[in-house]
Amino acid sequence: MTAQILDGRAVSAAILERVQREVAEFVGSHGRVPVLATVLVGDDPASHTYVRMKASRCAKVGMRSQRIELDETISTETLVNKIRELSDDPEVDGILLQHPVPGHIDERAAFEAIAPSKDVDGVTRTSFATMAFDEGGFRSATPGGIMALLDAYDVPLSGKHAVVVGRSPILGKPVGMLLLTRDATVTYCHSRTVGLADLVAQADVLVAAVGRPELIRGEWIKPGAVVVDAGYAGNKGDVEYAAAAERASLITPVPGGVGPMTIATLLAQTIKAAREHESAGHLGT
């Protein structure tokens, strides 16, 4: 068996084509361009690269990216105040705080300064709660992208055993909640889980989200499993790709799998936010 590729580049391209049409319709109806504000703290090269990629994608779909760069020495209070300014700015539709921030900053406090109606990256407690309760709202961008990718390939989830390896508040935990809302049986694991190989071997659907290259060995994979690798370090994912591809039915490449879906989800949620802001404004007049 050689696994079929879960092609995030192709699926994200289709999503972005749809978003581009929706943006054009929005501009025609409301006479303004949707705005995504990206907040970048410090000089981390990878973060700068990610922000440039997001700005490029914004331009391609007709959105405007408002980039705010802040010195790495700023305080949590200063960052929180800036994000609150953006939350109060009627011209801004979505806010993205690029992760990670410098270690001295209280990242959770900064995330919570984002107005829920502009949390297009799905990082606030409000967004997590709406995901867990399946009440709409904005999904965490990477988990939302993973679900869209699985849906694009008609991966059945109801009744399946999904194993999530990773417990971060913006990836591991929310993707487990999203899988649970689709009637999967979800097991959470992490890098310190005892007997990890045995638990991975039970997975009909495996989501790897730890950030440790090749932590998950190919021989652990259940024959026919669907493998989603959301890890990325030095062009390697969390899963030993070549060996896993010999056992899985579907697998994401690294890069080219989950990453493009994250940006597509972010922009899809930004146009959704813009429409909701216009609707709320009209209701209030």
From TrEMBL:
GO biological process per UniProt: L-histidine biosynthetic process; methionine biosynthetic process; purine nucleotide biosynthetic process; tetrahydrofolate interconversion
Gene designation per UniProt: folD
Sample GO molecular function, one term: methylenetetrahydrofolate dehydrogenase (NADP+) activity
GO cellular-component term (any): cytosol
InterPro entries (alphabetical): Aminoacid_DH-like_N_sf, NAD(P)-bd_dom_sf, THF_DH/CycHdrlase, THF_DH/CycHdrlase_cat_dom, THF_DH/CycHdrlase_CS, THF_DH/CycHdrlase_NAD-bd_dom
Reaction(s) catalysed (UniProt annotation): (6R)-5,10-methenyltetrahydrofolate + H2O = (6R)-10-formyltetrahydrofolate + H(+); (6R)-5,10-methylene-5,6,7,8-tetrahydrofolate + NADP(+) = (6R)-5,10-methenyltetrahydrofolate + NADPH
Listed EC numbers: 1.5.1.5, 3.5.4.9
Domain of life: Bacteria
Domain Tetrahydrofolate dehydrogenase/cyclohydrolase catalytic: 6-121
Role: Catalyzes the oxidation of 5,10-methylenetetrahydrofolate to 5,10-methenyltetrahydrofolate and then the hydrolysis of 5,10-methenyltetrahydrofolate to 10-formyltetrahydrofolate.
Protein name as catalogued: Bifunctional protein FolD
Subunit structure: Homodimer.
Keyword vocabulary terms for this entry: Amino-acid biosynthesis, Histidine biosynthesis, Hydrolase, Methionine biosynthesis, Multifunctional enzyme, NADP, One-carbon metabolism, Oxidoreductase, Purine biosynthesis
Residues reported to bind NADP(+): 166-168
Keyword set includes Oxidoreductase: yes
Family per record: Belongs to the tetrahydrofolate dehydrogenase/cyclohydrolase family.
Entries under CDD domains matching the protein: NAD_bind_m-THF_DH_Cyclohyd
Pathway: One-carbon metabolism; tetrahydrofolate interconversion
Residues of the Tetrahydrofolate dehydrogenase/cyclohydrolase NAD(P)-binding domain: 140-277
